[in-house]
Design brief:
alpha+beta, globular
């Protein structure tokens, strides 16, 4: 008899947890591309690395690198499904021109070639973090290592 109320509460919580809507992958990519254009982000050819690379996942085409001296939006040349993978595979080997810098058009993250690197201010990072999200919905950027 006590099992029925527990089951009802569990099903209700599960149903409520599944109501978060997200932008479709095509809309997420379009939203970030529009953000880059509208914000007139400054493109740089390289950034200095101080620590091991950690990123915030935006979508399969973009990540944000939080660094000591600012944040950078990384755009890959092509879709990078490897960013969502938790297990390392041989195709995820990173290639670097320099151990202390990350270069666009040469280096890789999780085996995906970096196409462009943009500087981000703190305000732009916050705007990007909530891009495409309505109040109360899930933020589409998430931490990855």
């Amino acid at each position: 008899m006590r099992l029925i109320p527990i089951l009802i509460v569990t099903l209700t919580l599960t149903a409520c947890g599944g109501t978060v809507t997200r932008l479709s992958p095509g809309k997420e990519l379009e939203a970030v591309n529009d953000f880059v254009a509208a914000s007139q982000l400054v493109e740089v050819q390289r950034i200095r690395l101080y620590d091991q690379i950690k990123w915030l996942y935006v979508n399969d085409h973009f990540v944000v690198l939080p660094e000591r001296r600012g944040h950078h939006l990384i755009e890959f040349r092509a879709r990078c499904d490897e960013l969502r993978e938790r297990q390392w595979t041989a195709g995820m080997i990173d290639h670097r021109v320099s151990a202390r810098h990350l270069y666009s058009d040469h280096d890789t993250i999780r085996g995906c070639v970096i196409g462009r690197i943009y500087e981000l201010s703190d305000d732009q990072l916050e705007e990007l973090r909530y891009l495409g999200d309505a109040p109360g919905e899930e933020v589409f950027m998430s931490s990855e290592e």
